Amino acid sequence: MNPLDDSRYLCRLGVNVDHVATIRQNRGTIYPDPVASAMAAESAGAHQITVHLREDRRHIQERDVDILRKTVQTRLNLEMAATPEMIRIACRIKPDQATLVPERRQELTTEGGLNVAGRISNFRSAVRRLAGSGITVSMFIEADRRQIEASAQTGAYAVELHTGRYASARGRRESVREFDHVGGAARDARASGLRVFAGHGLHYQNTRPVAEIPEIEELNIGHSVVARAMFVGFETAVKEMLEQLRRHPTPQTPAPFPPTYKAG
Ligand code: PXP
By three-state DSSP, how is residue 29 classified? Predict the structure, then answer.
């Protein structure tokens, strides 16, 4: 199965295995191994493995990315800051895709998208260097027209829309508003010639409506899958997420919107 063209699903699933490495790094052990979880994700049907090599190396290590480059059979997506060090590493390892993300050392996770609009020429040269090494480049941005237009000017192939605000919205009104921002941004990005991906904060109850946005071709999901894997195992956790993305052969009732949350 070509991971770029799997018509069974509304979009591709990239599984982010950072938090397997978080558990390892917390105790300075050699287990659990994110490489083993990447293999499990692929045998469950994931279309891509995503890792974030942070400047502070708090979870994924450079060695993990080296091994993943040799072992991943689908596609390897490296999330990274657009710094000279990271660009050097990416050009050496050559992931299939690089997703440029903002990084702040104090943050718990990637909070907010890139400010591309403020630094178009810097990003343009980062994109040029990565693309020159054969790497597809995606920009992780908020669902914001200014950032979309700026991303298009960098020569990037795609944008990944940050779904964190949608995921953390409380109540119907806020949820609908944030979902509409994501849908509108997806259309704007596609109209600007960019391919459209999304991710952050997606879980088993809120992913389906995002997957149904027609412009969205790829979702990158980590924390919820790793958390679910503790109870059902990694392969089952990935299969359950893939079920959320499955294209139904006959018209079905659309996913409930806003997503319903079960108590407990
Ligand atoms: N996409 C990007 C660009 C990210 O930085 C992250 C978090 O590492 C994710 C997707 C996955 O987010 P989550 O772990 O909340 O599913």
Answer: coil
